[in-house]
Amino acid sequence: MDQLDKKSDSEIVVLCLEDSNYFSILIRRYEKKFFHYISRLCICSTEDIEDLIQDIFIKIYRNLNDFDRKLKFSSWAYRIAHNEVISHYRKIKARPQSVHLEPDLIISDKIKDDFGTFLDRNLNKAKILEILALLDLKYKEVLILRFFEEKSYEEISDILRKSQGTVATLLSRAKKQFREKAIKLKIEF
Amino acid sequence: MNKLSNKILDQIKTEEIRPTSRFIFLLRNIGLWIVSVLLIILGSISISLLTHNMANQDWDIYRHLDKSLLGFVISSLPYFWIILAIFSLIIAVLNVEHSRKGYKYSPLKIIIVSILLAISLGFAGYALGFGKKIDNYIGSKFRSYQSVEIQKKLVWNQPDKGLFSGTIESVNKENTTFDLKDFSGKEWQVDYSMATLKGGARVEENSEVKIIGKKTGVFNYFQIYIFQESTADTT
Fold first, then answer.
1. B191, B177 in Cβ contact below 8 A?
2. Do B91 and B125 have their domain in common?
3. Would you say residue A157 has pLDDT above 90?
4. Strands B177-182 vs B224-227: parallel, antiparallel or unpaired
5. Residue B108, exposed/middle/buried by CB under 10 A (0-12, 13-18, 19+)?
6. Are residues A175 and A122 in the same domain?
7. Which residues contact A137 (CB under 8 A, 6 or more apart)?
8. Element (DSSP H or E) covering residue B40
9. Could you list the residue range(s) of the whole structural domain that residue A74 is in?
10. Does residue A104 fall inside a structural domain?
């Protein structure tokens, strides 16, 4: 098992295509990441998130042969997760749920620009969540991918299937909308 | 192995889920590119035909058709080809964007490259005569399609408005008249004594000419432009 743990995601994908049991390694590596990502992105119950994660992994398994090895596996897997979450998000928007999780909101040092540093220093978790919930989905997801999932512009571009220029524009607009919502909520920014 | 892993692996085994074949994904991606290329070619063909259509309009006859230049332009535009060119380019751009790597390029860049490609190929096709060939071919196959040639015949078959065309059958230089058979087979006598010959038109037997003049009904003369552009009096 230790030897397998040292293998890259791409190498595990090759093994999975031969034997589905190896897929458990990928599940183990991404299960928690997806859990946090989904709980940050949409208001879902734990059961809903687990169902979503199961659907995501099944979709990943079905599409293993579509994985482009020039991409990072994580970007490709997040793309599938993103698509599943978006389609789920549309459903629950029509049928809002009251259960609300408190996800981890730790901003990595690696991506702390002015905005990230500000978030980290001045806003508490509850307030960030409150503002994020008010943002348009396209802005919310790009902020989450950048500041909470620690993804680079290139990775976000691969996940959202948008050019890096479009990602930069989206991020800039997302920050602007975040500030505007913060001001509306009388949170000093 | 944790609970979720077990659940997922169980589902994979019980439902006998298999990864979709690599061939299917490859086929889908290649299919998208082939369709995109075909659509850009279709766009280019439309642009060739559009250019052929516009380049072969007789832009200076609008005065004789009781139309303003704008009205003439609007009535002359080949809308079918314009719509087809726009439609095929939109679908081509969407296809490229949905291809495996399409998202890496900005949509504006894809649109500009597709348009430039279609225009370049379209003009090249027109310059090489493909526009005319395709136009004539479609015109010969589909009755409802009016090729430039058919349109021209219709425009130049309005003797009451002083527009007609045909082949010169014989020339009488003493009377400065000639006999002309129009494309519907009707015979005319044309006085060209006051005619202005345009576009290299020659009054000689077997010459195909277009005429702007006035139908008098008697052997009486007026101005004619013989075209390849001129004015004559006809009876």
1. yes
2. yes
3. yes
4. unpaired
5. exposed
6. yes
7. A86, A89
8. helix B22-55
9. 2-94
10. no
Domain with B86, as residue range(s), is 20-141
Query: Quick check: B2 and A61 CB within 8 A?
Result: no
Both tokens of residue B182? Answer: 């129009």
CATH number of A25's domain: 1.10.1740.10
pTM of the predicted model as reported, rounded to 2 decimal places: 0.70
- What is d(CA B17, CA A73) in angstroms, rounded to the nearest whole number? 21
Instruction: Let me know whether B125 and B160 are in one domain.
Output: no
A95-109, A138-152, B54-68 — which one is most confidently predicted on average? A138-152
- Residue pairs between chains A and B whose CB atoms are closer than 8 Å: 70
pLDDT tens-digit series, residues B49-100: 989 888 887 776 776 666 677 877 787 788 888 899 999 999 988 888 888 8
The CA-atom distances, in angstroms, between B78 and each of A52, A126, B51, B83 are 52, 61, 9, 9
User: Which of B90, B118, B141 finishes a domain?
Assistant: B141
Residues of A in contact with B16 (CB under 8 A): none
A117–chain B nearest CA distance, Å: 29
Show the tokens assigned to A104.
């981890």
In DSSP terms, B214 is beta-bridged to B233
Of A137, A142, A122, give the one whose Cα is nearest residue A182: A122
Both A144 and A169 in one domain: the answer is yes
Residue ranges of chain B with pLDDT lower than 50? 218-223, 229-235
Q: Which of B9, B22, B100 sits opposite A23 (nearest CB)?
A: B9
Tokens of A126: 């509850």
How crowded is the C-beta side of A54, counted as CA atoms within 13 Å? 17
- Which residue bears the tokens 């939109």? B90
Average pLDDT over residues A42-62: 89
| Chain A: closest CA distance from residue B76 (Å) | 41
